[in-house]
Amino acid sequence: MRILVVEDDQTLNRQLVEALNGAGYVVDKAMDGEEGHFLGDTEPYDAVVLDVGLPLMDGISVLERWRRDGRTMPVLILTARDRWSDKVAGIDAGADDYVTKPFHVEEVLARLRALIRRAAGHASSEIHCGPLRLDTRAARVTLDGTALKLTSHEYRLLDYLMHHQDQIVSRTELIEHLYDQDFDRDSNTIEVFVGRLRKKLGGAELIETVRGQGYRMHDGGTGG
């Protein structure tokens, strides 16, 4: 999953990026509203952490422009404790949730997990696909009750496919949502990790290749 952090406080920005990276997300960052708006307008994100009080363009204006231009990614806004009006303005502008400063980073992570799940149509923190279980809170995957040992790249790929199961996900979409802007998009990394995941899933043929289109994760796939 790919997250955008737009926060002008350097220390807080770094803390959020480090925590999100540690939780397995790919993170882009911006230090002002104009850069944040540009990234959100041109790159695909699974969620955005957006500060309200930004230089060059305030967070509410950034959010209003995104929504006006049809950008639908979940947005979590950061507001000051004594500015209840920012919360109201943010929700009215199209924010999906908010966190009040100062906050615990764990709360931001929990709210982002919930926003990403809901955007994909999942209400529970545990996502199922046949015998496979993904616990988004613990970042833990089990197959028939047995924990699977996955690398960070394998987990990110499986996490995205599980959130979008029964949908055809193209290789390009996977690259855009699992890697940063500097990733070599001509590499065969996705194919390699899909192959590794299939081996670890054994006889559970859950990842189907839809020739010429991409991959689809569903219970009872035929493989490919």
Automatic annotation (TrEMBL):
UniProt domain OmpR/PhoB-type: residue ranges: 124-219
Transcription is among the record's keywords: yes
Molecular-function annotations in GO: phosphorelay response regulator activity; transcription cis-regulatory region binding
In-chain residues carrying the UniProt-annotated modification 4-aspartylphosphate: D51
Key words, A-Z: DNA-binding, Phosphoprotein, Transcription, Transcription regulation, Two-component regulatory system
DNA-binding region: 124-219
Domain Response regulatory intervals: 2-116
CDD domains named among the record's database cross-references: REC_OmpR_EcPhoP-like (cd19934), trans_reg_C (cd00383)
Entry-linked InterPro entries: CheY-like_superfamily, OmpR/PhoB-type_DNA-bd, Sig_transdc_resp-reg_C-effctor, Sig_transdc_resp-reg_receiver, WalR-like, WH-like_DNA-bd_sf
Pfam families for this protein: Response_reg, Trans_reg_C
GO biological process: regulation of DNA-templated transcription
Gene Ontology CC terms: cytosol; protein-DNA complex
Protein name: DNA-binding two-compenent response regulator
Lineage start: Bacteria, Pseudomonadati, Pseudomonadota, Alphaproteobacteria, Hyphomicrobiales
